[in-house]
Amino acid sequence: MLIDGHNRKVNYLRVSVTERCNFRCQYCMPDKPFSWVPKENLLSFEELFLFIKAAMDEGIDKVRITGGEPLLREDLDKFIAMIYNHNPEVDLALTTNGYLLPRVAQKLKDAGLKRLNISLDSLKPEVAQQIAQKDVLKDVLKGIEKALEVGLKVKINMVPLKGINDNEIVDILDFSKERNIEVRFIEYMENALAKDDLKGLLGKEILEKVKEKYTITKVGREGASPSFSYLTDEGYKFGLIDPHKHDFCEDCNRIRLTAEGNLIPCLYFDEALSIKEAVQAGDIPKAVEVLKTVLKDKPKENRWNDEDSEQSSRAFYETGG
Ligand code: SAM
Known about the structure:
By secondary structure, the protein is of the alpha/beta class. 31% of the residues lie in helices and 18% in strands. Residues 21, 27-28, 66-67, 69, 95-97, 119, 157, 159, 186, 188-189, 191, 194, 316-317, 320-321 line the site of S-adenosylmethionine.
């Protein structure tokens, strides 16, 4: 079992397989062209898997593939199959913008993927385009339908932004309810790479919008998930992730690995240690030692809060959100 310096059990590894993305979401990426990490600096799937396997043997039982946009990395299904075949019981999930799903959903399912979170910030083509800085909605919707058709369990992620898509909170909830899938509203987390003047809604403001149509009851959290569940009067369950409160840092169970091999203990902070050299030298015990050092020093909580607009300098597209 993996335990961090604050006595929290860590069993969840998020793996960003690429920082590249086919969207330029205003809350995540700078819109100016910037230089990507060259492909040769990334760990190969075989190298990433060597580490994941060791981490699973140490107690990781939940793995989420993310990015950047993970579906941009070629042969992702083969990588998923490596993890699944090592332990079919592992809770294996993926976060994607959905754009490329119509082509690959079946392959991902066949490889052993169980669950998908798909980002959907608007149901209006022009607003989706404004946020992603690309005309994306039609393909994202096709991606959602394809994922459901092949039998993947889907959740929707929405980041409500003031004056942009905050009038669509109920629409996205209804869209998800009609398809019998759960939506999770995520508070915008201020970060240095996002567009300057963006303002997100706090959790309580998001709930106010839902209450314009529904009576809601707070249900609570499932395990160490950062998402608080609510039920509408019709019995539909949705989630709220509000990092500006620190309730969920108390039992944070996650650690993040980037495509370059950096292990990141907290989404907010810059601190990270590399497992790259160890893994590329085939020294897996050394990589596990690095993992344990990162866990020992894992911060107690993030610094987003309700009172001021503390910004993280970490790039979401690098850590995978
Ligand atoms: N490209 C994939 C996608 O769009 O879902 C995976 C990577 S993305 C970084 C993972 C999640 O992080 C998405 O649900 C996205 O909405 C969320 N995210 C990115 N930047 C964020 C921010 N500043 N605040 C809140 N959520 C953010």
